[in-house]
Amino acid sequence: MPASPAAVATPTAASLRARAETLLPQFRAELAELVAIDSGSTSPDGVDRMGDWCARRLAELGFDVARLPTPVVDGQRFGDVVVARLRGTGARRILLFGHMDTVFADGTAALRPYREEDGRAYGPGVSDDKGGFLAGVHAAQLILESGFTGFRELVIALTPDEEVGSPASGRILAGLAAGADAALCLECARENGDLVHARKGVADVRIHVRGRAAHAGVEPDRGRSAAVEAAHLVLFAHSLTGARPGLTVNVGTVRAGERANVVPAFAELFGEVRAATPADLDWALSAIEARAAAPAVDDVTSTVERLAVCPPLEPASSTALLSTAVAVGAELGLAVSAAATGGVSDANFVAAAGVPVLDGLGPIGGDDHAESEWLDLRSVPERVALLAGLVLRIAAG
Questions:
Q1: Which class for 309: exposed (0-12), middle (13-18), buried (19 or more C-beta within 10 A)?
Q2: How much of the chain exceeds pLDDT 90, in percent?
Q3: Average pLDDT of the residues in 294-306
Q4: Closest Cα partner for 136 from 52, 9, 31?
Q5: How many CB atoms lie within 10 A of CB 313?
Q6: Are the C-beta atoms of 187 and 339 separated by less than 8 Å?
Q7: Other C-beta atoms within 10 Å of 304: how many?
Q8: Interatomic CA distance for residues 131 and 139, integer angstroms
Q9: Closest Cα to residue 8, out of 156, 152, 154, 144?
Q10: For residue 129, cis peptide bond before it (omega within 30 degrees of 0)
Q11: What DSSP element (H or E) covers 309?
Q12: pLDDT tens digit string along 342-354?
C-alpha cells in the first residue's frame, strides 16, 4: 500500500536535483537509445517502436500503461498514443505530455547517430522531443522514488503526430486533458533557458482560383488569368502581416497553369495565418475570404478553404503555473522566465480544453528540425528537478 502524504516528507528541490544528477548517466544512455529509433510522423512503425520503449519504461516505474490507436487521416496511418496513469492519495490530477515523432525520414538515425560533444548531445529528435519527454519520465521517477503520492492522478501522455499538427491525436489529447487541474508540456526549453507561456494559433488556408483558358498568342483577350488573380491574392494576404500585433500571413506554395502558351484557367494557393488571439486569427481569415470574393480580374472566381485551425496558447493559461515554476526555480538557484513563440505545440490543444498549461519544461535545446539539433546535457538535472518540483507544488495546491 502506498504511504500517505502525511507519512512521507515532501522532497526538497535540492534533494531532487541531487538525485537527478546521479541519474544523468542513465538519462544519456536512454537518450542514445531513443535517438537511434527512426520515428518520423509518417512512419507509424517507427513511432510505435518508440511507444514500446516508453510503455515498458513507464510500466517499470509502476504506471498503468495503455496504447490508444489513432484514426487514419486522409489515408495516412499514425502510431499509437501512449497513456500512463498512476493513482495517488491527493486531490489534483496532473497531466504531463510530449510527443514521440520527429520531422526526419527513415534512415536519418543511421546517417546521423547520437553523439556527445562539449556537454551537448546531437542527433535527430534529441531536443524535439526525445530529450523533453525523457525528462518527464525521469521527473516521474524522482517523484515515485521519494514515496510522494499526494496527487489524485499523475498522467503521462505521449503522442505520435505532433510534428504534422496532431491530426490523429489532437482530440485524444484534449480528452485526456479534460478535468486535469494542470498540464505540463515536455517540449524543451528555449536556447536561453526560457519556458514557454504563450504560442500563436495557426490556421492553414487553401485558395482555389478559377479563370478561363485561351490561346496566349492568338486570342489572349478571351482568357481570364487565374495566375494574375492569384498574384493579387498573394500580395493581399502578405499585406495583412503586422495589421494586428503579432499577426503573420505566409503563402507558402502557388501553382497555376500548365503551359506557357495558355492563359491559365486554374491556380491554387496554400498558406497559413498565425495570430496571438483567436479574434485576430478569425479577423485575418475573414479578410482573406472577403478579398477572394471581390476579384481584381473580371470573371475569375476564388474559393477559400479553412483547413486545420489550431487555437493559440494565451498567457492567461500559464500565469499561475509560471509563478509556481519561478518559486521552484528559486529553490534550485535557477532564474526561471518565459517567452512567447510563434511555433505551435500540443499545448495549444490542451489550453483550448480550458486546462492551465505551461510549456517548455524539458531541458535546454536548440536548432530543432535541423542537422545541428542539440540538447544541453548540463541542463538536464536542474530541469528534471524543476519539473518534478513543479508537480509536487501543484499536487500540494
A1: middle
A2: 96
A3: 96
A4: 31
A5: 30
A6: no
A7: 18
A8: 12
A9: 144
A10: yes
A11: strand 301-310
A12: 989 999 999 999 9
* Integer angstrom CA distances of residue 118 from 115, 188, 242, 354: 10, 19, 40, 42
Residue 190 identity = R
Rounded (5°) CA angle 224-225-229: 115
State the cell numbers at 43: 512512419
Distance set, CA 207 to CA 116, 242, 247, 289, 392 (Å): 46, 21, 19, 9, 49
CATH topology (fold) of 201-310: Alpha-Beta Plaits (3.30.70)
Cβ neighbours for 324, distance < 8 A, ≥ 6 positions apart = 390, 393, 394
Q: What CATH class has 5-199+312-396? A: alpha beta
Q: Where are the domains of the chain?
A: 5-199+312-396, 201-310
Quick one: cell of 14? 535540492
pTM of the model: 0.90
DSSP secondary-structure letter at 12? P
CB atoms within 10 A of CB 323: 11
The partner residues of 334 in beta bridges, in order of sequence, read: none
Task: Count CB-CB contacts under 10 A for residue 29.
Answer: 10
Strand order in the sheet with 182-185: 64-68, 81-87, 153-159, 93-99, 182-185, 357-358
